Amino acid sequence: MAHKYIPGMKPGVETRPAAVPVADTGALLAAYLAARYEVHAAGGLLRLRIGVPAPPALAEALPARGWTLVTAWNPGSRPCDEAANRRADAALQADLDALGLRRLAASNSDGSGQWHEPGWLVADLATDDADALARRYGQAGILHWSAGTAVRLRMYLPRPPGADSPWVDWVRP
């Protein structure tokens, strides 16, 4: 799939996430791997786990060749006030609408259900476009995977020593 223009983005220019200290990247990776990812489908909540194939009901709720779970909340994994997060989410929704992408509401939280971030499970978003959106909205990581494979995490930070997981793709920051 060809890279699509994202409204408001200058060609070749991407917003970078707020710098997360490298010392914190390992802890942040562990948090992403332990997080709860839930998709709000017509039949109820569908839970996603990194390293595990998505539930078969996902393909019924949002048929696709692949999916991306992205949020605009808390850029750089740093808390923002709710008003700023809602503005960023509205802008992300406008970008997804401009790309003509189908989506379902999703929610992400830490393993205990605390750090809550609404987001979107998007159907058939090309990898380059997923990376561009993640960077535009300052995200340290997103979920992005193809149908029939395990859910994968894409991280946009420097890879810390010993961060070996077959389910994590380290994208050059």
Blueprint of the fold:
Blueprint: H1 22-34, E1 36-41, E2 44-48, H2 56-61, E3 66-70, H3 82-98, E4 103-109, E5 117-123, H4 127-136, E6 141-146, E7 153-155, E8 168-170
Parallel strand pairs: 7-8
Antiparallel strand pairs: 1-2, 1-4, 3-5, 3-6, 4-5, 6-7
Walk me through what this model shows.
By secondary structure, the chain is an alpha+beta fold. The chain has one domain (22-170). It has helices at residues 22-34, 56-61, 82-98, 127-136, and strands spanning 36-41, 44-48, 66-70, 103-109, 117-123, 141-146, 153-155, 168-170. It has an eight-stranded mixed β-sheet with strand order 2-1-4-5-3-6-7-8, sandwiched between helices.
